[in-house]
C-alpha cells in the first residue's frame, strides 16, 4: 500500500504538471509526513478539554509562567496614572501654584501627564516592532529573558528619577520590553497547546492584565498614609520583585515547538514537545505524529505565504488576515472602553468621596478578572469567538445608548450614580466578550509563519487608537472643554455599532480549527459568515516535494518515525 501511494504521487506530479517532478524517495517522505499529520489532526479534533488538561499540564504551567510577564506590565502601567493624586509625587515632579487663599499646591502639568502616559505607548510601539524580528530570530525564551533584564535595569531610572524628564525617559525605555510582552505571551500560549486549550490559555492573558492592575492599585492604597517620598518610591521599587524569579523560571521553560519547526530544528522541537506533555496520562498521544503535523502545516504555509517580513503581512491572502487582526485589537478601544474607564469620575460627581475612588478602581479591575472566567465558561459551553464578539458588541451598544439618554435626566447626582453603576456592568459585559475573546482571535486568525508580525501590527494599531481615544474622552467629559457628559455615550454607541457591522461581515469563526485548516479557509477566500460551516481537507492540498523534503534529514536526526 505504501509503495502504491508513493508511486501514485510520483506519477501524478509528472503527468498533471501541477507540481514539480518528485522522486520516489521524496514521494515517500511526503506520504509519510501527511499520514502522520492527518492522524495528529484527527486526535486534536477529538481531544476534549479534560484530555487536553491531562496531556498538557506542563504546557499550561509554562504558559502561565510566561503570561505572568503581563501581570508585571499591568502593575507597572497602573502606577503612573494613579500617582497624579499623590501630594508627595506632585511636590517632587510637579510645579507650584498659589490659590486665591494663598495656599500653595503642586501639580504635574497636563502636558507632562499626557507625555508620561503616551511616552510608555511610544516605547511599546518600538518594542512591538522589534519583537517582530527579535523573537523570530532568537526564539521566545531568550527574547523574554532579555526583556526582563532590561526592565530590571530601566526600573532603576524610575527609582532614582529626580525630575519629570527622568520619568519620561524611564517610561519610554520600559515601554520597549512592555511592548514585547504584549504580543509574545499570546504567541507562546497559542503554540504550546492543542486546539482544545488554545482559547483558554490565550484569553488567560487578559486575566493577567487585571491582576497586575489590582496589585498596583493595592500597593498604592497601602502607601496612601505615607507623607514622604517613599509613598511613590516603594511602589517603583517593588517593580524589581518580578524580573528575577521570572528569569529563573523561564530559563528552564521549553521553547515553542512551532518556532523550532520553522527554524528546521525538528530534533529540538520533538524534545520540547515531550517536555510540554505528560505521556503517562494520555497513551493516545504520539509526538512523532504531532511534529509531522507541524511540518505539514509549516510546508503548507510556505506554499501559501512566500515571505516572512512585515511587508508580506499586506500581500495576498495575508492582507485579509492582517486586517482582521488589526481591527479585532482596535475594536477593544473603538467599542467605548476608554469611556467606561471613567466610571469613578461619574461616581465622584454623584457625591462619592474621593478617597473611595481607588476602591472602586480596584473593584472594576476585579470585575475584569471575573469576566475572563465568565468567558471561559461560555467557551466551554461551545459559544464561538465570533458569536461572543457579535453579541458582546450588541450589548455594549445598548448600554452606551442608555448612558447617553441618562444625560437627559434632570437630577444630575442620580444620573451620575446610575452612569457609574452601569459602567461597571458595561465593564463586566466587555470582559465576558470583546475584552477577553480578542486575545484568542488574534492568536488564531494569524498564520504561524507571520503570527508574531501580524499580532504586532494589530497591537500597534490598538495603541494608536488608544492614544486617540485617550485624548478625545477627557475633552468630551471635561466641563472646561466640550462638556458632553453623558452625551458622550451616543458618540461611543455610534462607534460601537460600526464595530458590530464590521465584525458581522469580516470576523470569521476560528474555534475548533487547526492552524492548517485556517490557512486553507483563508486561501480559498471563504466568507467570514461561512467559516464555521465550511469543510476543508488540508491533506488534499498538494505540497511541493522540495518543501517537505528539506525536512527529511532533520526527520531522520530527530528519529521521528514516519514508517508505515
Characterise the protein shown here.
- With 564 residues, the chain is mostly helical.
- It has three domains: 30-56 and 277-304 and 543-564, no CATH class; 57-254, Growth Hormone, Chain: A (Up-down Bundle), CATH 1.20.1250; 307-533, Growth Hormone, Chain: A, CATH 1.20.1250.20.
- Helix content is 73%, strand content 1%.
- A two-stranded antiparallel sheet has the order 1-2.
- Helix 16 (343-349) runs antiparallel to helix 19.
- The longest helix is centred in the first third of the chain and has 29 residues, at 110-138.
- 50% of the residues are buried.
- Residues 1-22 have low confidence and may be disordered.
Keywords:
Growth Hormone, Chain: A; globular; single chain; disordered N terminus; mainly alpha; 564 residues; two-stranded antiparallel ribbon; 25 helices; 3 domains
CATH architecture of the largest domain: Up-down Bundle
The average pLDDT score comes to 83
> Can you identify the CATH class of the largest domain?
Mainly Alpha
Question: Main β-sheet, in a few words?
Answer: 2 strands, antiparallel
CATH topology value of the largest domain: Growth Hormone, Chain: A
Q: Between the first and last Cα atoms, what is the distance in angstroms?
A: 9 Å
The share of residues in extended strands comes to under 5%
Question: Which sequence of SSEs, written as H and E, runs from N to C?
Answer: HHHHHEEHHHHHHHHHHHHHHHHHHHH
Strand numbers in spatial order across the main sheet? 1-2
Helix content: over 70%
Class derived from helix and strand content? mainly alpha
Helix run count: 25
When the domains are counted, the total is 3
Shape: globular
- Unreliable spans are 1-22
CATH homologous superfamily descriptor of the largest domain: MFS general substrate transporter like domains
Roughly how many Å is the radius of gyration? 26 Å
Count of individual beta strands:
2
